[in-house]
């Protein structure tokens, strides 16, 4: 595979005689591209930094030069970046759950996959197969997906761009790979329809109560969860009503064992942020050595145990039929 150390972004305009681009649009797009390149390099542990070279006309062309100690790894990074930015999205744009596809592998499995690729990148010669594998792994990063979404969202609003093309170049500015083109009609496919992520659920959460809500209204409780202060909605109506009607006491150190739902979404740079907490079922209220299991807690544990035993039963049946 020929060596490459540059990546060119060609903005094609509807008017061939037009060679100017809005400075704000260009700067926003460049910021997203640089974030994608650097995140790709960080994930794959490739030493690289970038400089921007003088732009070229013919539509409008931006060229980034990748600098680093290992030219072969830089070549791989350039080709990976080209694919990551232009590959068809893994997610269903219309899905309300961004992680339907992305969560097929656990975080631990993804880390192992990346670590294995790092070893392959350092031990193997650059190859098309290796580039494809690395681009596929890197492309599952939520940061890269969000940054790519930002890039195409900015371009989609800028109606003078007919299409964009990415091409890897060598030291003499000659193409190392074929140009990959994305048309304006496809820009929207890369744009996330929602930033919301699937809620996490902690079925064995322990929250030390700082401030219970002792009056009617949409007020939030306060507590310590995993040594951090949180505000949360008490959605367990039975427990909430018991507190209000029966004047259940709370003292210093009172805690609840509960099912805690953690709502999350992506911020503008692809970081996961928590948007809220909600307790859906209180299992127990604990005051030192005094433990009070709630009726809804008993029902929850019974239903969970029943579901697990049925799962084991079906698993055994499946194994016997083989």
Brief sketch in words of this structure:
The protein has 322 residues and is an alpha+beta fold. It has eight helices and eleven strands.
Please describe the structure with a list of short key phrases separated by commas or semicolons.
322 residues, 38% helix, five-stranded antiparallel beta sheet, 8 helices, single chain, alpha+beta, 30% strand
Record the SSE blueprint.
Elements: E1 6-13, H1 23-43, E2 49-57, E3 60-67, H2 71-86, H3 99-102, H4 107-123, H5 128-138, H6 142-157, E4 161-169, E5 180-183, E6 196-211, E7 221-225, E8 228-234, H7 237-246, E9 255-266, E10 272-287, E11 290-293, H8 295-320
Parallel strand pairs: 8-10
Antiparallel strand pairs: 1-3, 1-4, 2-3, 4-5, 6-7, 6-9, 7-8, 9-10, 10-11
Structural notes for this entry:
With 322 residues, the protein is α+β, with helices and mostly antiparallel strands. 38% of the residues lie in helices and 30% in strands. It is elongated. The model has no long low-confidence stretch (mean pLDDT 87).
Total count of strands: 11
Distance between the termini: 47 Å
Largest sheet: 5 strands, antiparallel
Number of helices: 8
**Fraction of residues in H or I helices:** 25-40%
Lateral arrangement of strands in the main beta sheet = 2-3-1-4-5
Radius of gyration: 26 Å
Give the amount of beta strand, in percent: 25-35%
């Amino acid at each position: 595979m020929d060596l490459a150390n540059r990546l060119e972004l060609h903005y094609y305009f509807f008017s061939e005689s037009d060679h100017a681009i809005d400075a704000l649009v260009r700067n926003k797009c460049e910021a997203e591209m640089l974030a994608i390149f650097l995140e790709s390099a960080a994930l794959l542990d490739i030493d690289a930094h970038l400089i921007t070279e003088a732009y070229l006309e013919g539509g409008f062309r931006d060229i980034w030069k990748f600098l680093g100690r290992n030219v072969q790894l830089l070549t791989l990074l350039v080709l990976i970046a080209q694919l990551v930015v232009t590959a068809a999205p893994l997610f269903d744009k219309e899905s309300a759950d961004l992680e339907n596809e992305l969560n097929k592998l656990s975080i631990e499995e993804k880390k192992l996959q990346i670590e294995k690729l790092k070893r392959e990148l350092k031990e193997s010669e650059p190859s098309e197969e290796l580039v494809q594998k690395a681009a596929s792994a890197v492309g599952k990063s939520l940061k890269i997906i969000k940054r790519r979404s930002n890039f195409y969202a900015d371009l989609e609003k800028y109606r003078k761009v007919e299409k964009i093309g990415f091409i890897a170049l060598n030291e003499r500015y000659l193409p190392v790979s074929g140009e990959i083109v994305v048309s304006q009609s496809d820009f929207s496919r890369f744009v996330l329809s929602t930033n919301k992520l699937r809620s996490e659920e902690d079925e064995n959460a322990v929250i030390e109560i700082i401030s219970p809500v002792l009056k009617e209204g949409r007020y939030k409780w306060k507590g310590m969860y995993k040594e951090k202060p949180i505000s949360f909605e008490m959605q367990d109506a039975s427990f909430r009503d018991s507190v209000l009607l029966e004047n259940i006491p709370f003292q210093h150190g009172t805690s609840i064992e509960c099912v805690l739902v953690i709502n999350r979404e992506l911020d503008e740079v692809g970081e996961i942020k928590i948007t809220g907490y909600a307790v859906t079922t209180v299992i127990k209220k604990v005051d030192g050595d005094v433990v009070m299991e709630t009726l809804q807690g008993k029902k929850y544990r019974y239903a969970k145990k029943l579901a697990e035993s049925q799962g084991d039963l079906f698993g055994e049946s499946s194994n016997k039929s083989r």
